[in-house]
Structure formats: C-alpha cells, structure tokens
Amino acid sequence: MNRRRKKKQQVDHVGLMKQKLAAIDWKQPFDKEKWQQNLSPIVQFWQGLPKLHQRALMVLVPVVLLLLVVPTPKEMSSTSVTPVETQRVTIQLNTQSLSDQSSAQVSQPQSESWKEYQIKNGDTLAQVFRNNQLSMADLNALVAIEGGDKPLSHIKQGQLIRFKLSDDGKLDMLQLEKNGNSVMFFRLSDGSFGRNK
C-alpha cells in the first residue's frame, strides 16, 4: 500500500510580519487593544514553541542584538594576513663517517682502505660477518635499522658488500650494492648505526 502524506504548507513568517507591520497605522495615537490584537499571532506562535526553544531564544536574541550593536575593534578589522612562501633549500651533507672525521683531524687513519666481499652461493650475512671477524652485536644493530626494503636480510649470490673498519678494529661503515643502487650503513657518535640510501 502506497500512502502519500500531504506536505504541510510552508508558511512565510517574514512575509506575514511584513504584512502585519504594513497594516499598522503609525500616525494614530497608541491604542493598547489594537496592539494586543496585532501581537496575538506572535504570542500564539511563542506559546506553541517547546519550552527549551523558548529559553534558548530568550538567551540568543539579546546576545545577537548586543553583538550587532557593539562595534568591532579597529585592529581586528584592519589586520591582513600575508601568505608565507615555501622555499626548497638544498643542503650539503657530509657523507664522511664520524671516525674518518675525527681521525682526519688528529692523524691519518690506519685502515684507510675498504674491504670487499662478494656473496657466494649459500652465504648468510652472519657467515659473512664471521668470515671477516666482524662483531655479531654490530650485525644485530644493523638488522634493527635496515628498514622495510630489508637489504641485509635479502642478500643474493654475486652481490658485493664493502666495509670499512675504524682504527680500533670495529665496523665503521658497510655498503651494499643492490640492483645498481648502493645502501650504506655507518656508525654514529653514540656507537649505534645510521642508514643512508
């Protein structure tokens, strides 16, 4: 069953108020009965509203009228915001490891050359570290920061690993060649490792 409800007719309250105001004869002296008669539709409308709406209107109408009467400060109206221009700046990065920097200032480092190792079939990174007398703690620190592409965990046969030791024999820098790209890990001043793609 398809029942259609009739739409309530829209009442133009502003138009009604304009008609009521136009009907008022402003030149005649004040007549209390006539005013009560003219205000009766407004009073009926007001009494038809729920109590919550009446209370809200009793608060909001004076506030809105007060805001319309009070002038705004001149500082607020004359203030203009200028847009900030964004600018890209190129930064020169020093890719020299910290041990190279400190040793270059003091004296020439003893282990100036890089050592290379090519991954053989079946090699794991742990075996590469053991074969080259590198610390397993350094391996764990490197694996912890290797990132989502996991260049250390996915080494392949024929891949080249280059590493450099500091003066005290610890791993200072490790470089992996992967798909024509180089991934470099380097020791920071606090002893941990950082990664540079």
TrEMBL record:
Pfam families recorded: LysM_OapA, OapA_N
Record InterPro entries: LysM_Opacity-associatedA, OapA_N
Alphabetical list of Gene3D superfamilies matching this protein: 3.10.450.350
Positions of the Opacity-associated protein A LysM-like domain: 113-197
Ranges where the Opacity-associated protein A-like N-terminal domain occurs: 45-71
Record's protein name: Lysine transporter LysM
